[in-house]
Write a structure and sequence with these properties.
Number of strands: 10
Distance between the termini: 24 Å
Helix content: 10-25%
Number of helices: 4
Structural class: alpha+beta
Radius of gyration: 22 Å
Strand order of the largest sheet: 5-6-4-7-8-9-10
Length: 236
């Protein structure tokens, strides 16, 4: 995502979107990446993590009572030891408010195809989403709807235009449009559908069937991969 000030300096803080947890993490810099990985990325759900909303079918085993502390070692008084305060986190986190995400590869430094096609696709997606009340851009914080973001290289210039559709827990299985604009963004990302060779004329079908229903219109030509945490499927 662009830096808040719109600068391109590598040291400027920026905001990242962590998926599939649908979490914005603000104030990220190159020097803070190790802390970001340790405290946020390593502890976040992945494409193979079972959905947190799924209840376990087997009751967990009873945790045994803790063993008593050995008394053979003399008790230590730690009250006089220097206390190391916890390192404050430089990040601010907040949930992504959108119900769905459309991520468009816009990388153009090695091959111009994705960089040229992404703006065209965004305009076409916007044209089909606005009448449904679902269009959201980078600065639109209204709950629900479809956020459309440019992203960097995802691999495979020959597959341009590359489009990734993320759908949240509540959106899986939805068969209609009614009420989606007010549904709010609840739950983790449960499904990702990675499409290739997307053209402007494909956008209407992608909105109606892929974004809103989790289906692929042209699987033999356009499906590159994805995951479905609700069904336990992963294919990259």
């Amino acid at each position: 995502m662009p830096t808040p000030q719109g600068h391109e300096a590598p040291s400027d803080p920026t905001t990242i979107l962590l998926l599939p947890s649908f979490t914005f993490i603000e104030n990220v810099t190159p020097t803070s990446v190790p802390m970001l990985i340790q405290h946020h990325i390593n502890t976040a759900p992945t494409s193979t993590t079972p959905l947190s909303s799924v209840k376990p079918t087997v009751a967990p085993a009873r945790i045994a009572e803790p063993l008593p502390t050995p008394t053979s070692v003399e008790d230590l008084d730690n009250s006089n030891l220097p206390q190391i305060p916890p390192v404050p986190s430089p990040f601010t986190t907040r949930p992504c408010p959108h119900q769905y995400l459309i991520l468009l590869c816009s990388q153009r430094t090695r091959d111009a195809r994705c960089g040229q096609s992404a703006p065209l696709l965004r305009r076409e997606f916007e044209r089909h989403l606005r009448p449904l009340g679902l269009y959201r851009d980078l600065h639109d914080e209204r709950p629900g709807g479809v956020g459309i973001y440019f992203i960097s290289h995802v691999g495979g210039h020959k597959f341009s235009a590359n489009v990734m559709v993320y759908r949240r827990t509540r959106s899986v299985g939805v068969d209609g449009v009614a009420g989606l604009a007010e549904s709010g963004g609840m739950g983790e990302g449960s499904q990702c559908i990675w499409l290739a060779r997307v053209r402007p004329e494909d956008c209407e079908g992608i909105v109606k069937f892929t974004v809103l229903k989790g289906k692929v219109v042209k699987p033999e030509r356009q499906l590159r991969g994805g995951f479905d945490r609700d069904k336990g499927l992963v294919s990259w």
